[in-house]
User: Fold Vitamin B12-dependent ribonucleotide reductase from Phytoactinopolyspora halotolerans.
Amino acid sequence: MTETVSGPSRGGSRAKGPGRGRGKGAARGLTIQRLYTTPGVHPYDEVSWERRDVSQQNWQTGETVFEQKGVEFPEFWSLNASTIVTTKYFRGALGTDAREWSLKQLIDRVVKTYRSAGEEHGYFSTPDDAEIFEHELTWMLLHQVFSFNSPVWFNVGTASKQQVSACFILSVDDSMESILNWYAEEGMIFKGGSGAGLNLSRIRSSKELLSSGGTASGPVSFMRGADASAGTIKSGGATRRAAKMVVLDVDHPDVEEFIETKAREEHKIRALRDAGFEVDLGGKDIVSVQYQNANNSVRVSDEFMRAVEQNEKFGLRARMTGEVIDTVDARDLFNKMAQAAWECADPGIQYDDTINDWHTNPETGRITASNPCSEYMSLDNSSCNLASLNLLKFLNPDGSFDGETFARAVELIITAMDISICFADFPTEKITETTRAYRQLGIGYANLGALLMASGFAYDSEAGRAMSAAITSLMTGAAYKRSAELAGVVGPYDGFARNAEAHARVMRKHAAANDALRTHSSLDGAVQKLATTYWQEGNKLGETNGWRNAQASLLAPTGTIGFMMDCDTTGIEPDFSLVKFKKLVGGGSMQIVNHTVPEALRKLGYTEETIEAVVEYIAQHGNVVDAPGLKPEHYAVFDCAAGQPRAIEPMGHVRMMAAVQPFLSGAISKTVNMPESATVEDIEEVYLEGWKLGLKALAVYRDNCKVGQPLSDGSSRKDSNEPEKEVVVEYRPTRRRLPKSRPSQTTSFTVGGAEGYVTAGSYPDNGLGEVFLKLGKQGSTLAGVMDAFSIAISIALQYGVPLETYVEKFTNMRFEPAGMTDDPDVRMAQSVVDYIFRRLALDHLPFETRSALGIYTAAERTQQLKTGEYAPVDDDTAFEVESYRQSVPMRESSAATQEEERSAESDTATAAAAKPAPADAHTSAELLEAIQGTSTDAPLCMTCGTKMRPAGSCYVCEGCGSTSGCS
Assistant:
């Protein structure tokens, strides 16, 4: 079916003959080899299609915001993916014949435009090569192997301007004409549904004089006008909210004012809130707060960071003359940056010298800014079009990564991305000139977190980072090798000649980083070896042909397109949570456990029975801590970005970014999430380590640092006109003593080899009233502590403290002895106290109460596997379900069975844990809150009202695909 190749010299497509440009000796075009498709069979004919009705509601108001019936999608596409594609990417007015109704129409509209432009501009050797190219792109898009960025789906093949870029960088000079032009250019970019960034450091500070003799306003004052403009356009936008980045150099005299800008506004928000104004996200009074439509970043130099390390002074320089006009304490300024970020998550940090050390075009100009999400960094007045691959599509059944197929897919996609620059439209003449001259591309990936988990690698581990680095190196190596081949066919980028030496130097730096990569297993070793070959062949070819593209790769948030590809994780992010919210065809929703969890457990060698038990436990608790049969050393494999009691540490995110950064042309869109308890010093450490580890940019977000977060409705808010009445009521508990004779039950137990006894005495009306614990020898310290603990618990029970309160507090308490027990209802215990209160809950709490706490008997858990739901089990039923459990044979894990179990829909373990989602949960973020009872700090979606979740430096809505960023 598919033509196979054995190495990079036989890639997905290749150039015929040597040469450069379209002159004498130039190659005629690319010969495209088949990768996925079959000769004589169209990709559409290989899949089954179905019609669906797509409807979307605002969960806050109940209003139907979108409805289109009878749309056509492959059967294997999820309802969520088809909903997002239908609402976001189908063109044409609803209810008219012009409206697209099939995925075939959408893919054809885009892919046929790419093929036509490729033929027109001489990219293909023959018409057959062009047809194979079209079919391969179609197959990959149809099977969710990759996706172009959103503007491609919005615009390509329509009557609109053919804007394909999501990311733009503008420039502004120290003149009113340039500043006003900045406002206009930014507005046009926002109108088109994209984002832009720029550096304001050329604008004179408020400490410098104008030629007329007055004092300059400074860049912060001009930010107000731009912010108001962005807020207005955001409110009226049809496709996406405005997104922008504002950068200021650390040596600008107004840098301190810039740093504190958004922190001061956060103080204003708090004051307005306390005064009764509506300042939650979307509230009518939040519009009075300034600077909220931009991400702010300080561009720091190595000189400044060394001054911070050595506690030295640092000079702030005039914009016109470059002379030092003020001196500050570097560490104090650095602390103010961290303090502001602690208060409101801004500013982020960009490392100027590192960025420009990896710059392929320094002879043209320095890199001074980035796009809003900080992954695209290039020349001023430039743009970048993006595409991302779904890494999970390259995971082989044996757990290895299919590097050769991945590299060939990269070559085909990079070819398409470069073709798009030939026909694309751009918002300004300057951006058109720069983009056509330097042809910056941004290929990246999604589902890294899911791939690592499915491979049995912890995200925060040396093995996980080595695998990620090897894949990233192979991606960029294959992209630049294809870029060199394209240069031999249609010529290098126009700006290459003046930057040839610098470009080649950066290519050698990438190759050297690949050679220095330390592998940890045969899995990442094989990928790194293949990447080495690609870098060697690509750089050798580039010496002859040059390169077609100044930049090739970066890691974007992949918010909306991640849902289009049915990805579990976005960009470089780890999994958000182990429980997922899943919409069902025909209505309704289900709570399921991430389908990569069973795959990971199989990879780690667990039996199917243990896998089912672990998945069931995750469905109830949202985490793996104390999951039956799961080894503690494997907990880290299932660590996620959110959730309790385990979440990836902030430095784990930083280390992952550092592992892949040397293999990217651009940077990484990612926010390092920090707990609410994080300190200013913790943020300083993250910023400092980011510089030492060679990152290009970094942003942090501390939970609950912003007031403008989604709040509950204001029905409970006190009327400010209502007079206060002070009423003092004194409540005193009354002790209810047990009678002289009372029923009691003594249970012997073993926890981790330690033996003990628990005696529980009850009131005649069956309420627990006392507990006595025997553990350790009489007279020992342990026995004395247990006696005192028993008395304290018993007296509190008699004063009316509910048993369920103690169960909530003492279950999951962890200390030695811990481990296996001899109790069939409580297989594992984290401590003696954990076991005791689980046992007391099973003996003395009603089913409904302990069910809410996730505590069940063995018979009840077995019945759930049989019937799909938990229910009280009497003795006769308990005997029946136990007999059923013992009668079910262990399933053999054959290769065919493993392949069948790859699908989350058919996976027994996942199906066992699937159940209707809570009525108030509409996304995974809300589902995690419902399970764990902790808040997920994220804004509400402006379109459908559901809670969003992080995606890189942005937020993305699982309900409708809306994002808060530009990718």
